[in-house]
Each structure stands twice: as structure tokens, then as C-alpha cells.
Q: What sequence folds into this?
DNA sequence: GTCCAGGAGCCAT
DNA sequence: ATGGCTCATGGA
């Protein structure tokens, strides 16, 4: 679906550089999108959100029906940002492809307007290599330190903290493991360095991933040390255009066990088979709704495991599976 | 102190 | 194929 641009009534003619641009949007929850664990470099500021995209400082503000971007370097073309924001997505059409099961419908209702972004593949790969067994605030700090120490300074408006681009592969490939560890990333340092070297030397060509079949693209990523199924799927979904990729982390695993199979003990293999057949062509979008729903609505209550020795989960308002719901089990009973 | 985090690699069954 | 154990680090 083509991305609409320049429909702001007061927008200048094409070719004129501006510092601000407004798009009309429907159902775009900017805060939920930027806080849902896809990206790690955005901070709320003065009622908007500020971050760095493609080496540009960007401030985003939202109203119920518009999204406005500001930069501090005049832009003649805003399509790079529209693409990053995935403004061309028809969210209603995407949600319409979801299976009508109660858990997913509840998650969609609770997180209306949550979107996926289309990130730079290298930043995404590097960030998720740093994400393993880390909480999101800590990932944000490690990535921030990495950018401060290795990234190119970028122009920011007066009064703002200094901004830095995400460091390119060649820059990190040339860093020592000790320098990387000093950013707080621990045992992930050699993984990040190896990935930077693979991309910088052309052994791994991230720009070609979108042209490959999903399984092939996944194999290329998983060839890197420190990159397994989950991190590979994050890159495929968040940066390479594979909307069917379905990263399974501890939260999504919890969602699957508690919301879909509350009184069974399915091994991860069976659960993965379920995710590959149940959620449809936008499975990755569905995954993002389940992930965010588990985090913001259930929070701490989600940690008890109904299938484990602790018994029933705690009494959050939406903590229970709708009574009597049983997903189609025939398709994976073999 | 103990547990856990948007995991993955290694080794023993 | 599957189940433990370990790898840093910091916050609750």
C-alpha cells in the first residue's frame, strides 16, 4: 500500500525543504509503538517523543488523527521517515486477517493503535544481540552508551542533549572486545563484534534479506554467533519486511501457555508449530500485540504459571482465559 | 541474598 | 531432538 505524503493543507510544494511535516493517521498509538520493545532509543520529552532515525534527530508528536515530525535539518523528502513509521500500513486490514480467538482479540482491543516499525537492519540486529536476558530499560542504556561512545554526533536543536547516530558496522568491527564490554554488554560483546565484522566485510548482506525466502533469510542471520531463532526473527520482523516472522521470547511464551494452553504442558516445539499455522500472514503483528498486552495489562501477575506447581494465576482483571475457550488443537495433535 | 530479564551455545542424555 | 548449565549485568 502506497504511503501518503504531504497532505498537510499548509504543506509547501514538493522540493521545498521544511523542518516539520504532518501526516494524517488513523489508529496510530505512538507511545505504545515506541515503548513496545521494538526500538530502544526513544525518550518522552515535552509531550512528544525524541530519537534518532537514519542519522537524523527527530521529534514526533501525535494527535488522535495526525502524526507530526520535526527535525533540525531541513528535509525536502520525508519518505524515509514515513517508511520507518510504516504509515502505509492499513491496520484495520491487518487486524482483519487475525484469527478470531479470544486471547488475540482481547490483546488487540487493549492495545488499539499499536504498530510495527520498519527499522534499519543493522541497528535492529545489533540492538537485539544486546537484548538477550536483559530488561528493556537496561537494553536502552547499553545501546545509548554504545551510540555515545562510537556513534557520529548529529545536529540537535538548542537545549537538547547531544545526539549520536547508531554506529555503523565498520566502526564496531574495529572496536576491541574490552571497549564493547565497557558499555555494559557483558558476554554479548564478542557476539556484537562478530556481527559487525560479518556485515562490514560483506559476509552477511543485510540489504538482501528481504529478497530471500523467510527460512533462508533466517538461516543467514542464525549463522552469526549469538544469534538464534528469536533474535533472527526480531530482525526479520522489525527490519526486513517479514510480517509472518514470530519472535518467541519469555513474554510471548507466557502468553501462549497462559492464554492459549492454560492446562497443558506443551513443549516449545509444539508451541512454535502452533504459531506458524494459527496466526496467518501477519503473525508477527499478532505477536507484537500479545507481547505488549502481556507486559502492560498483566504485568507482574503474568509471571505465575498455571501449568506449573503454583496453580492458578493471580487475579488481574483480564488475567484469565475466557471460560470454555479451547483453540483448534486438531492441527497440531500429531 | 535471590530472582529475573524481548537468549544462545555447549554438553550430557 | 531435549533438558540443564553457564555466560555479565543491574534492578526489584
A:
Amino acid at each position: 500500500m502506497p504511503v501518503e505524503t504531504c497532505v498537510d493543507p499548509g504543506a509547501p510544494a514538493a522540493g521545498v525543504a521544511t523542518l516539520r511535516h504532518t501526516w494524517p493517521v488513523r489508529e496510530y498509538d505512538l507511545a505504545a509503538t515506541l515503548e513496545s520493545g521494538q526500538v530502544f532509543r526513544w525518550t518522552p520529552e515535552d509531550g512528544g517523543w525524541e530519537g534518532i532515525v537514519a542519522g537524523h534527530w527527530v521529534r514526533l508528536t501525535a494527535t488522535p488523527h495526525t502524526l507530526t515530525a520535526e527535525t533540525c535539518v531541513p528535509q525536502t523528502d520525508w519518505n524515509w521517515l514515513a517508511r520507518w513509521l510504516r504509515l502505509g500500513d492499513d491496520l484495520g486490514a491487518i487486524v482483519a486477517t487475525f484469527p478470531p480467538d479470544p486471547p488475540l482479540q482481547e490483546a488487540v482491543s487493549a492495545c488499539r493503535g499499536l504498530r510495527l516499525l520498519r527499522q534499519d537492519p543493522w541497528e535492529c540486529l545489533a540492538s537485539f544481540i544486546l537484548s538477550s536476558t536483559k530488561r528493556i530499560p537496561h537494553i536502552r542504556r547499553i545501546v545509548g552508551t554504545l551510540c555515545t561512545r562510537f556513534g557520529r554526533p548529529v545536529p540537535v536543536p538548542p537545549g537538547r542533549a547531544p545526539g549520536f547516530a547508531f554506529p555503523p558496522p565498520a566502526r564496531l568491527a574495529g572496536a576491541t572486545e574490552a571497549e564493547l564490554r565497557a558499555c555494559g554488554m557483558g558476554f554479548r560483546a564478542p557476539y556484537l563484534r562478530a556481527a559487525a565484522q560479518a556485515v562490514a566485510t560483506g559476509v552477511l548482506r543485510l540489504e538482501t534479506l528481504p529478497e530471500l525466502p523467510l527460512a533462508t533469510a533466517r538461516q543467514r542471520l542464525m549463522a552469526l554467533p549469538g544469534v538464534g531463532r528469536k533474535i533472527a526473527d526480531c530482525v526479520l520482523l522489525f527490519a526486513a519486511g517479514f510480517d509472518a516472522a514470530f519472535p518467541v521470547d519469555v513474554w510471548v511464551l507466557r502468553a501462549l501457555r497462559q492464554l492459549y494452553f492454560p492446562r497443558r504442558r506443551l513443549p516449545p516445539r509444539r508451541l512454535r508449530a502452533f504459531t506458524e499455522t494459527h496466526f496467518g500472514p501477519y503473525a508477527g503483528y499478532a505477536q507484537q500485540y500479545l507481547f505488549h498486552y502481556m507486559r502492560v495489562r498483566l504485568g507482574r501477575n503474568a509471571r505465575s504459571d498455571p501449568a506449573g506447581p503454583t496453580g492458578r494465576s493471580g487475579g488481574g482483571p483480564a488475567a484469565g482465559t475466557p471460560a470454555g475457550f479451547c483453540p483448534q488443537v486438531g492441527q497440531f495433535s500429531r
The radius of gyration of chain A is 21 Å.
